[in-house]
Specification:
Pfam families: Glrx-like. The chain contains three helices and four strands. The chain is of the alpha+beta class. It has a single domain, classed as Glutaredoxin, CATH 3.40.30. Helix 1 links the parallel strand 1 and strand 2.
Length: about 90
C-alpha cells in the first residue's frame, strides 16, 4: 500500500471539507461559522453547511448538539469550535 494511502497519512488541507450542521437563528452556529470561515479560508479547505430543519436524519442525530462540525464527514466538534483544534485537524499537525 502506498504510504499516502495509509490510515493517518496527512492530507492537504485544500483536499479537506469542513461541514457546519446548524439551523437558522442559532447564535452558536454563527460563532462556529466565523471560526470555520477563518481557518478554512486560510488553509483553502472547502466549507459546506447543512440545515437540520431541512433534513430529518440530521435533526434526529444532532438536534441537541448544534452547531456540529464535521471534517471529511467525521464529527469533529459541537457547541463551540476551537480555532486551533480545527486548524490541527485540517493540517494533520
Amino acid at each position: 500500500m502506498s504510504p499516502l494511502l495509509r490510515r493517518g497519512a496527512r492530507k492537504d488541507p485544500a483536499d479537506r471539507t469542513v461541514t457546519l450542521i446548524g439551523k437558522p437563528g442559532c447564535h452558536l452556529c454563527d460563532d462556529a461559522r466565523a471560526v470555520i470561515e477563518k481557518v478554512a479560508g486560510e488553509l483553502g479547505s472547502r466549507v459546506e453547511e447543512r440545515d437540520i430543519t431541512q433534513d430529518e436524519e440530521l435533526y434526529r442525530k444532532y438536534w441537541e448538539q448544534i452547531p456540529v462540525v464535521l471534517v471529511d464527514g467525521e464529527q469533529h466538534d459541537f457547541w463551540r469550535v476551537d480555532e486551533q483544534r480545527l486548524r490541527t485537524a485540517l493540517t494533520g499537525g
